[in-house]
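To the team - nicotinamide-adenine-dinucleotide complex, inputs and output below.
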Amino acid sequence: MVGYAFMGAAHSQAWRTVNRVFDLPARASMVAVCGRDEAKVAAAAARLGWAEAVTDWRELIARDDIDVIDVCTPGDSHAEIAIAALEAGKHVLCEKPLANTVDEARAMVAAAAKARAAGVRSACGFNYRRVPAVSLMHNLIAAGRIGAVRHVRAVYLQDWITDPQFPLVWRLQKEKAGSGALGDIGAHIIDLTQFVTGQRITGVTGLTETFIKERPLVSDSSGLSASAGQATGEVTVDDAALFIARLDGGAVATYEASRFATGRKNALRVEVNGENGSLAFDLERLNELEFYDATRPTAEQGWSRILVTEGEHPYLGAWWPPGHIIGYEHSFTHEMRDFIEAVATGADPTPSFEDALQVQLVLDAVARSDASWVSVAT
Ligand SMILES: NC(=O)c1ccc[n+]([C@@H]2O[C@H](COP(=O)([O-])OP(=O)(O)OC[C@H]3O[C@@H](n4cnc5c(N)ncnc54)[C@H](O)[C@@H]3O)[C@@H](O)[C@H]2O)c1
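Output:
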């Protein structure tokens, strides 16, 4: 695994847990973790459960006892690490968004296609697909329970940079992150909505906004928290992105991604309206799925809350008895479960690099659509 901070910790938890919960055809062994600071990566290895720590990711790729490279670094290094790993015959799990640009994502897809021909697998870490309620939403829509999908409404709202004194961390720098709220959290709802509906976005128009254009430079940073220094620098990404879209199955959709939604910490909400019913998911209540079944007798219609903890619900047969709820980190355990099973059985894990490139193309289209803004006549 490369990178050991936020996602590094989430992935480590999942790698540690996955074989203890799921019966799989292969076992994960946590061979080595990479970070650039020798003392810090050694401490992280001990804390997170990795046998060894190294300071250059190339060392991981050169080793014969490593089969999988898990990329948990910011977007500016995804392409270089993933392509080198695939060329060395390592299976790759890469965090989202796949890359910082469409060109990088295309190069990663080319490397993945070449590697696939040699039995080497790759996938991108859109973990929210693996929340059981989201998986159930996908299954119900695929089974036709709400009929043709008309509307998709998705928001992903955070508020961690509303303070203008919050410093210029890597997520606010285009060369490190590619984009702001758009690529960081907007990418999640693009993937999630396309996954649950089985439809792909074919066109968009939207806007992006950067409310705070200068911020103090970082004096000490780890992950999402950082302390501010004296000098300031330019914010080169969006703080918020809003767009509308058409999907290839005839649905229309609205999306909102913001880091300025005061009071909203990690509010990912999706509603899908179909001709025969609707489904709604709220990450803050991730064990639940709301279902409105319009095929029921009129007198009995109404929103029902499905507690998604039954053994027959996706992934849950391996966990606890019904009603014993799960949390955020389980989505990563499920991601590793599906990845290990695919690699061990010679199948392609999902979402593929091709799927993730398509998300990147949507991000790119949203950013470009800003240029065709129509001003109201005076
Ligand atoms: N799936 C999700 O829900 C989710 C959530 C957060 C972040 N992410 C994604 O995960 C990735 C990492 O984000 P994060 O929040 O963990 O960031 P972070 O800042 O918490 O951690 C990044 C880690 O990468 C390390 N790193 C950076 N460049 C490196 C290099 N060249 N070699 C070795 N290590 C290097 C840093 O030292 C740090 O350990 C990003 O692509 C981000 O978009 C996904």
